[in-house]
Amino acid sequence: MEDLTPRRRAILESVVREFIATATPIGSKTIAERCGLGLSPATIRNELAYLEERGYLTHPYTSAGRIPTDEGYRYFVEHLMEEVELPPAERQIIRDRLYQMPLEMGQWLRLAAAVLSQIAESAALVAAPHPPRSRFKHLKLISLHGSMALLILVLQGGMVKQRMLTLARPYAQAELNRTASQLNSLFEGRGPREIAMKLPQLSPLGKQVAASVMEVMKQVGEWANGEIYRGGLANLLHQPEFATVENARRLVNVWEERSILKALMAEASDLAMGKVQVIIGKESPWDEFKECSLVLARYGVDESASGALGVIGPKRMAYERVISAVRYVADLMSDMVRRLYGNHA
Hints:
By secondary structure, the chain is an alpha+beta fold. Helices cover 50% and strands 19% of the residues.
């Protein structure tokens, strides 16, 4: 991108901000009144023509004012936009809403998607946090009644799973303790494949418990990889960019197509922790998002568990506020992951 003169930067910023606010093409008279440069409409028209020639602006039809192109939005995001934070009172409300939720994964992620969509006034996605690899920490076996027992499995990173087991026969608690101790010694730090290699060394009871352990560990990985929580589609459909039936239908189809949303979240999962990525219009590798802007971030704790979140909005989005919202919610969710996964996170 070229280094625009201060005057051209101010005019481009004025066009972008006014178009974000009004969704209508911006004329030279409006800029003359709003940008405070003391320029005549004729001078502004010349600068608008230059910015259009350079690809930062366009106009819908001959007599219309200008609107930003994807390149114009990109220049705004890279060079003109201010780093802002959400107001303290709003940040406190968001914290209170997220922190009052018990640490049950599904409820927490569903609420996070709803909160983010509300702040950004767009659609939001949240992918569940996922450990780099599911590994065994320890287990307990608790005798209940008859042949029933409770398996409490703790994975590295602090995730706890419980499962009811129907055993081949009733076992005394002392025998369950001995089996749990043996399995803890054999399985510590191992993944499902490594646990499977230890099966020949086990008693029938040990093999049954080990089979349940491997099944739970597999389900943890599959569930975390597959769950994407969504919120705020109506916010997006109310935007004028999606007023036509064709555009609205395309957006709804994307919203229901899980493979595309998974690919989008996979894009965010490669980001460095704390970084926010903005993808504008045709920069997107997915044709379905060519009329949208995407603001993505990764949350969690490196080497422990991480997930991804993002906002889908029109290219005419309030970038400063949306980026601030995504960054703040990602920070809160990283803190929640630390709490959920315990000291190991």
